[in-house]
Amino acid sequence: MWNFRKFLLELFMNSTEISYMDGKLNFRMTTNRNLNVRNPLYGQLVVGPPGSGKTTYCEKMQKFLKELDRKVEVVNLDPANDGMDYQASIDIMKLITVEDAMSHLGLGPNGALIYCIEYLETNFDWLVQQLKASKSNYFIFDCPGQVELYTHHNAMARMFSKLEEMGYHLCVVHLVDSHYCSEPGKFISTLFLSLNTMLQMGLPQVNVLSKADLLKQFESKLPFGMDFYTEVLDLQYLLDALDATPGMGKYKKLNAAIVSLIESYSLVSFSLLDANKTESLLRLKNAIDKANGYVYGAGEEVSVNSLLACAVGAETESERMEKNINTYLQ
User: Fold this and answer.
1) DSSP code per residue over 33-63
2) Positive or negative, the Cα torsion across 213, 216, 221, 224?
3) DSSP letter string, 127-188
4) What confidence tens digit (pLDDT) does each residue in 86-119 have?
């Protein structure tokens, strides 16, 4: 999630000239050419396992942001995505496709997809020129569903690190099917995947449990309240449930080590999403705006009070439960 303290520190250090005179520190606001203030560029990297709803989310979020008068476009970075519900302004399939790599190099589907991403990195200037030619200042990057690209392969992380250096304010939106909450083992895997992606990509990240409208179908299978999963509360309870699962008792020490690792970072929490509900998209949009800094520097009319409210969260616990959780289970 967006680190407000880090944002203020970076803003201060990049826009303040510090001098020492007559025994006093003096501060003067300056303009840093590296800060793209007049025309800031923003983006969200939509990642997640296959079937998590990435393409649907991109289509719905693009439409929603356009209704807010944002200049937003979707960038397709999935070289196997031939069933897009949106019109991609920038499409990797115009550069290379998985089918091309498979037929010319004799690779399987997974190897071909990784080759395509490495090919895009090699031809990174192509992507940069496409972005510069766009009249938009907000980009939704629809990324491939091969999770190893965000857990231990470095091409995606390197490319978006370069975009950050060029002035793009980015965050990761990591989607996972909310059905994984129904079994302790699946939810532990979800937590591990989310944490690994956060550490590998090195960007602010909003973790999302997608298809929340389907939660009612397996609510009876949830051993805990929904807030346990969204806030990732005391995982010892989850560990007990995991150890009680048939066939998992022999992995007790391994399960305990994984849970301990996740808790030691204390970084993972989730937002619920029903992509068909405007209110759900709005709540997620607010979280993303904080993560990539849009709320702090997009030139929209804001006050100090509204910034602080966004930074620390202005909802009561009962309001959050009613709007973000109970609405999906009633």
Assistant:
1) TTS--SS-EEEEEEE-STTS-HHHHHHHHHH
2) positive
3) HHHHHHH-S-SEEEEE--S-THHHHT--HHHHHHHHHHHTTEEEEEEEEEEGGGGGSHHHHH
4) 889 999 999 999 999 999 999 999 999 999 999 9
Backbone angles phi, psi at 222, to 5 degrees: -80, 120
DSSP-derived secondary structure letter, 267: -
Full-model pTM: 0.81
Helix, strand or coil for residue 25?
A: strand
Structure tokens at 214: 């389907």
How wide is the angle at C-alpha 181 spanned by C-alphas 177 and 182, nearest 5°? 110
Burial label for 294, CB within 10 Å (0-12, 13-18, 19+), is buried
**Per this entry, what is the length of the chain?**
330
CA dist 325 to 179, 208, 213, Å?
15, 13, 11
